[in-house]
Amino acid sequence: MQGIITWGTYLPYRRLDKSSIAPFVGQGGGKGTRTVASFDEDPTTMAVEAARSALRGRNLTPQQLLFATVSPSYADKTNATVIHAALRMNDSVTALDLGASVRSAVGGLIMAARSGVTTLVTSADVRTGLAGSAEEANGGDAGAAFVIGDSSAAPVAAEILAIASATEEFIDRWRAPGTVRTKVWDEKFSEVTYSPLAKATWKQALADAKVSTEEIAMIAVASPHARVASSVAAKLGVAKVVSDVVPTIGNSGAAHPGLLLASLLENSEPNQVVALVSLTDGADVIILRTTQHLANARPTHSLENQVNGGAPLSYGKFLSWRGMMAIEPPRRPEPQRISATAAARSEKWKYGFIGSRDKSTGSVHLPPIRVSVDGQRTDDMEDAPMADVLGTIATFTIDRLAYSPSPPIVFAVVDFDGGGRLPVELCDIDIEEVKIGRRVRMTFRRLFTVDDIPNYFWKATLVRDN
Amino acid sequence: MASHGIKDRVAIVGMGCTNFVEHWDLGLDDLVIEASNQCYSSAGVAKNDVDAYWLGTAQGGMSGITLSRPLQLDNKPVTRVENFCATGSEALRQAAYAVASGAYDLAMAVGVEKTKDSGFQGLNAAPPPNDGTGRTLTAAAMFSMVAPAYAKKFGVDPDELREAIAHVAWKNHYNGARNSRAQFRKEVSMDTIKKSPKVAGDLGVFDCAGVADGAAAAIVCRAEDAHKYTDKPLYVKALSFVAGNGSGLTNPEYDYTTFPEIAACAVDAYAQAGITDPSNQIALAEVHDCFTITELVLMEDLQFSPRGTAWKDVLDGRFDLHGQLPVNPDGGLKSFGHPVGASGLRMMFEAWLQLRHEAGDDRQITTDRSLALTHNLGGYPGEMVSFISILGTELG
């Protein structure tokens, strides 16, 4: 059986204080906060960021890439190919989208574990709902990524001891593709349906893994229904349940099981048996045993750090970012649809953030150029991958007039460590934070969408402590 | 290989310029007709006397037909040119070279822009289909990065720099108020300028050029023929053009306190014209004050002020209407307005008026010098084109 080699999670920077909802809408909201994907993020960009966190500094070459989300940016066309391009993966990698259900995310983990090839499994979601709804308040936006493989690829941090599933057709939560509103049946119906499924599957998984409940050090139960998750967790008899992140970040749908699994791993010791139970349209149980390689597999950007980070967002901005409230744009022309052919030609730059480095002088060019700056040599360049290179703000400005889905634009001239300069938009930043000399890193974003084509490219964001 | 220039080989013998305002009732055709007819009349020639045409328009239309159709030209060669905001200057440059080559006796340059049909504020470029990775900032934002960099490099107190660039706006409004063709004809107080709403960075509304509709035109001939058309021709002393390679956007050594393309263009222009001490030889300069901070930095790139000192010269009033070296006595882009394709020729129109002492009592400068400089740029800090002409009333 395969195991987890490494993992990464991504939480967007902004947090909505749920108590700000009811004063505006007259209903809804509640206590706590939820994560909010920025106006320039979508499940694809968040999956990219989670995967970058998982892969950073590791020499891993997955042969498969799986991506699950409930709210894909493309139908017909594959979204995973964008992730593939942003991660600069080999052309030979099979990149696939899984269907737009919450269950597909845990399904990706199961398929990877059973596949026999090293697989990057990603999931991400932007959770929406009508204003004042429970879905709006209790949702959250996030991404998660796991590299699944065997020890021939890299040391395994957690062996998968058993996988057990049960499948059941019943209508407890549903939404029409492309819409923002998830509808739910009576939660009691969910609870009575999931409980026996969870118990039976749990029993089967324990038997397959040849472990007892007492040997399980910690459990995580993922369910879109908070009530189902807590009641099943209590019923399975495991003493320790992974701490509940939902009150801070919300339930991130397809990303939620991955976040809980990451939390399990980040809070485990080596050589412990832990279990993930995911309850959507049946039950899926994965039992794992951590290894001595666990510590080395931890991503530098832990989930806990991200849960504790972030900055507030007003409810008005939240509504406008999700398209629930149209706000007056700057009186400037809106952007044009990008050219598919031009984008295809510049794939390495646009998606992979690869510039060119002059082989003779070492100077780095962003975007890449073919002719040396002295004009003397053509095609004496090599690839300069810059996505993971940090930079420093040389100068900056705030543009209050230019078109942006969320004005004003904060813009800086960024000088990269080791050479290269790019004037580029900053994201996840408040105006008063931008200063000459501040350190920035690159992040994959969706600049705008025209004609249903998301325009993906990179922005810079401040290097923060968490 | 050298930039030889065409000093004293070509003369401007007629010019025309429309008012630069929001011409809600005039289209591009109307504007070129008005500027062209003024120009024919100024040179005392009939339409058919002009042998070839260059039309400068950034976005007003494609091909020479944009001019030949409204003017109903009779099988004339007409070329449309575009070179960012230096488009109008480019048209003149091509016409002058065509005459200097001997290919034509009389050539006309027309610059025009109908900016106000877009329904948007400011200028709006329509980029070709692209991969979506380019910048989408306004010009104001790109130029706004110059002010803090300049203050830091030269140790100028930001409030003093703010005062200096406000003075640029104040001066250009003062001058524009005395120009019947200008878009904005009111003086504006320093206080109003400094308190104007921010557009980008620290640049407020009053730090930005006006955007207007307009057209301007010039007729050129060989220098030896100039007096057939006018007693007071302007001889072309220098025409210099530099298209930058965009390196300022990618090279960390570029510090946003100068425009290297313009500095290089100035060196070439002064060499062509044989000018060794620009600030003491030039009577007036019309420069591309797209933003107030731009004009301030131009004073250094054009060698009017040593590096890091232009802000003092600005505050001392050296470039005021009756200062030692009047800059933008017609109000500049700031107050005259900026119909992109016309602006370069509008600058030459002011040189034409001032050197011929026809600017009117309100703003005629008093000088015993005979040279004027026009400077026209396009693009942004780090990636721009620069044009400089030097025109004079005397041969030699």
List the helices and strands and how they pair.
The complex is a heterodimer of chains A (466) and B (396).
Chain A: E1 3-10, E2 14-17, H1 22-25, E3 33-36, H2 43-55, E4 64-68, H3 80-86, E5 94-97, H4 103-113, E6 119-125, H5 134-138, E7 142-149, E8 158-167, E9 173-174, E10 183-184, H6 187-209, E11 216-222, H7 226-236, H8 246-249, H9 256-266, E12 273-278, E13 282-290, H10 294-297, H11 303-308, E14 311-313, H12 315-321, H13 340-345, H14 347-350, E15 354-358, E16 364-365, E17 381-385, E18 391-399, E19 409-416, E20 421-427, E21 439-450, E22 453-462
Parallel strand pairs in A: 2-14, 4-5, 4-6, 11-12, 20-22
Antiparallel strand pairs in A: 1-7, 1-8, 2-3, 6-7, 8-13, 9-10, 12-13, 15-16, 15-17, 18-19, 18-21, 19-20, 21-22
Chain B: E1 10-17, H1 28-43, E2 52-56, H2 65-71, E3 78-81, H3 87-100, E4 106-113, H4 139-144, H5 146-154, H6 158-176, H7 190-194, E5 198-200, E6 203-204, E7 214-222, E8 234-243, H8 247-250, H9 260-273, H10 278-281, E9 282-286, H11 292-301, H12 310-315, H13 332-336, H14 340-355, E10 371-380, E11 383-392
Parallel strand pairs in B: 2-3, 2-4, 9-10
Antiparallel strand pairs in B: 1-7, 1-8, 4-7, 5-6, 8-11, 10-11
Helix pairs in contact in B: 1-2, 3-14, 6-11
